Structures are given as C-alpha cells and as structure tokens.
Amino acid sequence: MQVLSGRITLDTSENSWEGRTGDLLVIPPARHSVTAVEDSSFLLTVAKS
C-alpha cells in the first residue's frame, strides 16, 4: 500500500503502523483495517506469487 497523500494507520489485532505521504506499507497476512488519520488517499497493489 502506497500512501499518496495524508496520513493513515494500518492495524491488526497485534500491531499498528502509521503511513504518511510517500510511505510504502506491506499488508500483513492477518485480518487488518486501515483508518485515515486525516484526509488521505492510497494505492493498493496486489501481487500473487
């Protein structure tokens, strides 16, 4: 997930990561959620191996 603008949090039941404009976050292989801390946009890219 690439944060295009703003600030978001990516949460699982065990961890939390903050992403800001330009950050790249790897989605964990667990149930997760994304919350916009401020007006934000992000690009989700899915790749299968």
UniProtKB/TrEMBL annotation:
Matching InterPro entries: RmlC-like_jellyroll, RmlC_Cupin_sf
Superkingdom, taxonomy of origin: Bacteria
Descriptive protein name: Cupin domain-containing protein
Organism: Tomitella cavernea
